[in-house]
Amino acid sequence: MRIAIVGAGLAGLTCGRALAAEGCPVALFDKGRAPGGRLSTRRTDTSLGPVAFDLGAPFITADDPAFGAELAVWQAEGTVARWPAAGARAWVGIPGMDAPLRAMGRGLPVRWSTRVEAVAAEAGGWRLQGADLDAGGFDVVLTALPAEQTATLLRPAAPDLAAVAAALPSAPCWTAMAAFARRLDGVPDLLSERGGPGDTFAWAAREAAKPGRSGPESWVIQAGPDWSRRNLERAAADVAADLLGRFFAAAGVAAVQPVHLAGHRWRYAASGAAGRNTLWDPTRGIGACGDWLLGPRAEHAWLSGRRLASAVAATRASAASQPGP
Ligand SMILES: Cc1cc2nc3c(=O)[nH]c(=O)nc-3n(C[C@H](O)[C@H](O)[C@H](O)COP(=O)(O)OP(=O)(O)OC[C@H]3O[C@@H](n4cnc5c(N)ncnc54)[C@H](O)[C@@H]3O)c2cc1C
């Protein structure tokens, strides 16, 4: 059973690793240049030297015991550590949020910088196509993408699965990344304005205060969903400057000129919840995982990826136990 997985974020890598551990040949495809997805870390050269920004999730938590156990494994491997400033349950990647994903990606056949534009049926299986891609001979194709991208990619091949994803719109999130020549005294390492009078940003995190980091004073500021939606089509540079001004106002400190400032628009930051673990059609050999099946957090992506791998492995085991012709 040759298996293609489209998307190598946390869900796709978890699914791919679990299937590879079952002895299934997997091939992963991701449009990004490196592991991360919505747990990305952006590394930038500034006049102060290199600065790293966790531009997606600022930290992650575990409610599910299985994901808690996985975090303990990652801690033992040295890819995550607790971050008490964000609460007793908060974990961050070491030295960036992408660290556990980079570790998971090692040893898996992932084709980076490869956008899959079409999933096409071919005799006895599936073919993936894109600008620099035409790969066939897959018995199974699985997606591990945000809901909107799942819907677009699966619509021609599996409109029933695409319809489930299309019903779950995500919330966007504008993110600003700023580095400063000096420390912003008097500002706590994690600032939240969630539900406050301005309700502009959800979180602002001092990056160098996270465990395993060093480097200049740098901040990631994440706008709330309503503000992000209202400002969605503005230019990134404009939004970053706007968010930075609102951050200074909320922190109650005088504005300081950053040495580096950039904005990033997450169109599909926070998912809905389909209320199911996975989508899997064993007859056609097509399925989907991702946070949006269970909820908007990293642990939902991990759980969904793992459960899709179990479902596919069970189908494979049951096919292998059938008597041959
Ligand atoms: C701003 C922000 C704040 C967050 N805060 C938190 C938090 O506090 N706590 C928490 O637990 N979670 C948080 N999250 C959510 C968490 O990051 C996600 O739940 C998790 O990373 C989703 O993983 P995934 O694998 O399902 O999707 P993704 O990480 O989105 O992975 C999808 C992958 O698919 C690739 N891809 C997309 N389209 C294609 C294509 N056509 N072809 C090939 N590859 C493609 C992408 O490059 C990406 O690598 C936050 C997310 C954001 C953006």
Automatic annotation (TrEMBL):
Keyword Nucleus: no
Signal sequence residues: 1-20
Keyword line: Signal
The keyword Signal belongs to this UniProt entry's keyword annotation: yes
Domain Amine oxidase: 88-312
Pfam families, per database record: Amino_oxidase (PF01593), NAD_binding_8 (PF13450)
UniProt GO molecular function: oxidoreductase activity
InterPro entries: Amino_oxidase, FAD/NAD-bd_sf
Identification of the protein by name: NAD/FAD-dependent oxidoreductase
Species this chain originates from: Methylobacterium radiodurans
